[in-house]
Amino acid sequence: MKAKHILAIQGPFSYEMNLAMIRDYKADVMVTKNSGLIGGSDTKLRAAMDAGISVIIIDKPAADLSGFPVFSTQQDILDYMEEYYGFH
To answer: Is 30 exposed, middle or buried (0-12, 13-18, 19+ CB in 10 A)?
Structure first.
């Protein structure tokens, strides 16, 4: 694959725009991140399915929250903020 065959632009775009890009560039596969409804994943996937092309979805890696504190109450949060950041 040559770099000139890669279309990398930031959306989200309408269904019509996604379908037009697929057809105009004669795409046979779409590689996209899972950006949810806010990011337009629904319109991208619908356009790809209607165009009959393959889709590769890259999902976000799970966040490692093992080093972060867990708070049970609002007071716990306030105490933490005061202790570590000096907020009152």
So the answer is: buried
Phi, psi (degrees; rounded to nearest 5) at 50? -65, -30
Q: Which residues of 31-68 are buried (b: 16+ CB within 10 A; e: fewer)?
A: ebeebeeeebbebbbebbeeeeeeeeeeeeeeeeeeee
Point out which residues pair with 55 in neighbouring strands.
Answer: 30
Count of Cβ atoms closer than 10 Å to residue 75 Cβ: 9
What pTM was estimated for this model as a whole?
0.64
Query: pLDDT digit string (tens) for 25-55?
Result: 999 999 998 888 888 899 999 999 999 999 9
Work out the angle at residue 42's Cα, subtended by the Cα atoms of residues 23 and 5, and round it to the nearest 5 degrees: 35
The helix (H) or strand (E) run that includes residue 30 is strand 29-33
Helices (H), 8-88: 15-24, 41-51, 74-85
